[in-house]
């Protein structure tokens, strides 16, 4: 079952709006979040994660800072070579993911992130986690799709997962192209529910389309 | 000059004061590891505020805050325990902070003496849940998979678990911490039994071959702990069609609850018609079984209700050297088992576990003209509390109650008798887990048991320690006293016996890195107070005693490697066992017929990507077991020939949700011998004739088709095989 591990990595860099041209008095929360996204863009993800963690401590009722702490820890675990560190990072991500889930229930963005958390374990050790966790990943995407069929990250994550499974079984993958292209289009029409809500991933989605749907 | 300084100080003061009277405090310090190395990138902040910073290259931090009074300084860094300091902000200057390693992290030492784990979350997993079903020799039986681990003896005709020189009754099986009283399906004496419960209900298996926790009692040699799945992933329907029967299962999920139901029907009639075995079947083995699990989540709790019913029947002529035409044997068994457990996270780091099980089993055995009806009613109740004082100290206390009532009536045209017994055992246990550091952990426990029927009180201490000898290796030691009452075979005739006792001494070394694991375990087991009686089998009027004793010692080796050969995962187990005991009707100390000196298992799995197939191989070797040759002086003085068996299987993924599965046991047709039966009386030459006890069939073939229907179309039954 080792080969299930090949199944894909979903990297969705979700960056909030970091620039606002209006000269409105910003709250501490807005300043903090803007600064954190700035650090992340300046390729200082761990400082960004620390800042998100501090914001989370000051804003215990807001799922977003918790979400971004988890996301950074998950995202950078895919490239982490040190196994001990990787496991510790995923453990930390799980804590923040649980906090985010407790604050905001049935949130499709969090479900996608949780699916990525399981995917990280599968990529890390497909033999050990492939069979059991792939069911959970599939179930999370399924549930997220029911809640938010028009969310581009849900559409992309789910389709990419199904695509990976089809690849694994040697089945044709071009049937996923319409859905992938729909996901790309959704990025343009999707309106985030609020400031600093996840909204990135379009470039990545276009990359997947380019790779899968050679014309 | 002096005046100038004063002026500027005043100036600065005014400057500060002009900022609306808000005072700025600087919080500063250094964060290091226990060995003094600075921690770079640790997150330092005042809890609940926006004020904070990450530590620099030298582990230093410094930031300003407008907060006043008592605040909590919080420092976090991955794989270290968070640090909290509640103090006045003015005092938070030049702090020297050393973070402690987080002992919850995955590289912390774990107590591994005696136990094997099969789970996803375990820190040292020897088997994976999937192995239970993809091991070629296991045929989907979780017990079969465990028989490839060291410490077990191959007793091919029996099928139960024989651990380290112990008999099968010395191993107890628990589902979700609650005892299973009748874990095996009934069978005739040359066909191995199977575990009653389907493996796909479980996602964690711990098999302990000795030195286990004080939570478990009434087992002299071993415990097998099975944990059911907390939450199924999705709704689905499973259909299976097999050469020996068919099965169907369905899972439904709701917001906070889920229900799984499955049923199966097994009938060996077509199989035995096509490939006759050595038995004269009048009614080949037939079984109907159903299982259901209901799970309900609460805010902080989880309730699981499990129930299983099965009915088995068969009838055959059993060969017998004293009865040329054979002995007619028929069996009908109805078995009902239910297990309810509830766990909840209470406040302030307390955890509650409460559970109970009830077994009702009715056996109707007919041997020629004699009819024996056995009814068993057994129950187990358990209540456990666990308190986590901190990451390094946890304490659990609990209490449990076992009750068993067995009634049997024996009816023969010229003789009939009714007998039985009821027993009840109450126990208390407590256990402390102490983690001194990532390298050193200790578990101390004690268990007290009181048996009403025997008016007997026993106390068993248990202790184990583990020490990490290197990055990937560790050493553990375990000691424990274990008590178990006599088996029902004896108790139904007398309760005037005491508990039997063993003491375990175990030393374990384990090396695990990069998908390779090596374990070596040295043990000594001391038996005392074993049941003795003079008759050849327990009888109504036998004179029972507790005069038996014995020992078992040996070394168990295990090696698993999933890395060296591409797409191949294999393991090798070897056990060396030296055991002798005097019990039952043994005239002298002897090695019992269920124990042997050498056992070897080799299991390999090869994934062929182009064929979407997993091919499995397993080989089992057991050196000859002992038997008594009545034509020679002595007792259990001779050895059977060595046992060999090879099994092959092939799982082919037709598509994501359809699997075709083939398996064959003993394709090369090794002729194995299970033992000999001697005539009651000698022939004209004064020699006792004997009959060779052979397996019912040398080979076994199995073909199955497994189909899963679910919404996401990717789940399959590979983990059910």
Automatic annotation (TrEMBL), chain A:
It comes from Ulvibacter litoralis. It comes from the Bacteria. This is Tetratricopeptide repeat-containing protein.
From TrEMBL, chain B:
Residues 1-23 form the signal peptide. Coiled coil: none annotated. InterPro entries: CarboxyPept-like_regulatory, Plug_dom, Plug_dom_sf, TonB-dep_rcpt-like. Its main location: membrane. It comes from the Bacteria. Keywords: Cell outer membrane, Membrane, Receptor, Signal, Transmembrane, Transmembrane beta strand, Transport. It is a multi-pass membrane protein. One of its GO terms (cellular component) is cell outer membrane. It is found in: Cell outer membrane. The keyword Ligase does not apply. Residues 140-218 form the TonB-dependent receptor plug domain. Belongs to the TonB-dependent receptor family. This is Outer membrane cobalamin receptor protein. It comes from Ulvibacter litoralis.
